[in-house]
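Ticket opened by: R.M.
Priority: normal
Category: complex prediction / small molecule

The reporter submitted a protein together with zinc ion and asked that the result be attached to this ticket for the collaborator who will pick it up next week. Submitted input follows.
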Amino acid sequence: MSSAKLPYSSLRDKKRLIFEGSLDLAQNVDFFLDKIASHKHLNAFIAVSSDCQNQANLIQEKIKNGNAGKLAGAVIAIKDVLSIKNINLTCASKILGDFIPLYTATAVQKLIDEDAIIIGKTNCDEFAMGSSNENSAFGSVLNPLNTEFVPGGSSGGSAAAVAAGLCDVSLGTDTGGSIRQPAAFCGIYGLKPTYSAVSRYGLTAFASSFDSIGPFATNLQDLFDVFDIIKGEDKKDSTSTSNTPVSNEINTKKIKIGIPADIISNDIQPEIRESFENFVLKLEKNGVEIVKISLPNFKYAIAAYYVLTTAEASSNLSRFDGARYGFRSKEVENLSDMFVKSRSEGFGAEVKRRIMLGTYVLSSGYYDAYYTKAQKIRRLIQQDFMNCFKEVDFILTPTTPTTAFKIGEKTENPVEMYLSDIFTTPQNLAGLPALSFPTGADQNNLPIGLQLTSNHFEESKIHNFLNSLTI
Amino acid sequence: MTGILTKYDVVIGLEVHAQLSTNTKIFCGCSAASGSEPNSNICPVCLGHPGTLPVLNKKALEYAVLMGIATQSTINQYSTFARKNYFYPDLPKGYQISQFDLPVCENGFLEISSGHGETKTVRIKRIHLEEDAGKSIHDRGNSTLIDVNRCGVPLIEIVTEPDFSSAFEATDYLMKIRQIVRYLGICDGNMEEGSLRCDANVSLKIKGEERLGTKTELKNMNSFKNVEKAINYEIERQFEILEEGGSISQQTLLWNPDKNEAYPMRSKEDSHDYRYFPDPDLIPVTISNEMLSEIRSMLPELPGAKIKKFTEIYLLPEYDSSVLTQEREIAEFFEEVCKQTLAFKEVSNWMMTEVLKILNEKKITISEFNITPQNFAGLINEIKSGSISGKIAKDVFADMLETGKDAASIIDSKNLKQISDPALIEPVVKSLFDANKQKVNELLEGKEKIFGFFVGQVMKSTSGKANPALVNELIKKELENRKNE
Ligand SMILES: [Zn+2]
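Result attached by the on-call engineer:
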């Protein structure tokens, strides 16, 4: 159902059609706006842009004049944890109230500078904390393929919007799988870039040393056309880098792919295992060498991930205190009352759970037992990956242990919910890029996604490799 | 106090915060100037808006390293920033970016005076970089207002080991720190305005015992006087408690300068667990060897070296040296003047009296002083050459101050050159003697006081320009003549 009604198969195709005069960009934008309206029940958007028709006319003119930017005409939705000047930023939380940012996030500005059209802000889990998009102050997002199921999280709105054809591409953020898991659940492509490859300036921080901004798309070309624009060093983000070499053509017969066999034998939905094994067969037919690898510290990833990300989150979210902007509780007696009530009323349950957890692990007396130990595990996991990449080019795993689950199915059991990130958190711990791509569907027709992980800054190698598979 | 000292050792450590005088803030491009309209030097970064990130101001790092070098500290070529977490309305991010595990400088020391001509070396534990918080303004009706201008102004915190044993030593250290930061040009050192702040940890230890006493922390002492008063107050307070068999509770005390009393902060404000952890938004700070030697080359001559130079090269008494090296600009003015005159002591005398008096009266700095070092040397040289007397020199000085002209041209145009030609003064003396026969007789009879009358009269009729030594000589000579008549 994705882009069935659209007369183009990629953004490059779209730009060509506009240039040739066979596609009217304003009509295309109208088409998306109508579709967003008719799919309101999905709850994918928190806000829709009011001036994108004007932009459409201007950009169409530029395309025809041959002086348009690289992403001219692309209609893009932005996860509402990214700042856009003069547009209410919510982070899907009540606590930001009617906060209006004074500036635009670097990644979004780069899209605008290349003449993309920002169609709206998408729904997500509050402050990007969640795996099902059920933690939003604006309500759950529904999976467009079956509305009884979750779209995944935390970038559920961005994934659902692309999967339902409400925009061409979208931006999400990934701290422990928040792009890859919803991409898998919605049957589309999602890229979590190398940590530092995309500037975080303007991304409301959840866990600063984990957060990555990346694209969702229905095809690989669009995915990487967007990534190529948003990546790069930014003077406003001292942790950003420009180290993204472009890989050459790939000879699949020289490629080695590692499979962490012990991990995949865990409790995985049979259809996913089947899909995984079929894909491995396909790789072998393409001449790829499959190597069994060992990632001995993988099993600690979820624990380390939750210690470190909640620690960082507890500090990152301290600024939301009701004092200077955003939501402030109505009846407060004194300063400390203002902080306590504003934060108690303004944050949702999952966010509060993580703030408390993070505060606890950083407390004096517990710091070494939790934070320091988790940092050690983080280094061990990085080491595990580095050892593997001495031997193999990529690591292949399923993106998720199950396909999309039903709305409400896991909300009572946060630990079970956390375990759905088992294949996606290690890459964030190690700062590695990983891409989720669709490979089929289960018996309920819910999509299955597989994940390719590469060494740092080898995003384009993943791209070229997937493109080079011939069979 | 002497009673205390026979029984206890006083143990004091200081934490000094110095606001760095960089143009921009430590993590954003906003002006770091103070005294602006509230909330005018702000941007999304220092407002702590969601999604903003800190980027380190290299100048602030450079200044911190300069202070490290000036205090003989080890410069850590790899240091990290950490977050100090606490809630306060004027702390926009809910944490202060500071340094914790790995500060930029460690293990320095500074020589101070312990009074009675004794000196002492105080160990500096660490110097770290951090950002200042904003200001809460409480005196506007029912609401508290927040001024974010100060948020992100760079600070260095200089922490000593508990090496001081008196308020005198602590105050001397603080004055030396102030002098150094001003010499380095990294902080204006203004305690009243809070660009230099000092907290003190005070405890008493029973003599001969290993175990330290419980310490209290003193805050809010915004002048050298108050630091001294507050520490002495706290020593006495702890002594009284201990002598009555009580025990000291570990707490933070705020000094009230109006009441000359310290009172405890509410315990809630005092019981922070800051939950320090490495700031993931900032990459570790690395200082290359090149950068380090570049910073080293920026180091000016420091007060200690200047004093040595003033006593050994310019041969000034120690007192003169210490007065003239108080401020770097004064010392440099002196040295500039001395490039053009050899009358070093004369320069020193004039600077310590006339120049410093004018600066004080006009509340100006030496850079705003209307007489250039060249012109000032010119004045001194006119005095030394006998071209003008000390008395006339004061008038010339006043004129120079007003017009900015050089001494020679003032002396010339006002015809102030000293008369040293006996042929010009002799007739004046002779006619004076003729006109005052009675007084001449009194003088001949031995009334020495009359001598002054004749000197005065000669000076008067030459408009003060006659060379006084010559006048004396000629009067004596004429007196001899009259005696023999
Ligand atoms: Zn600023």
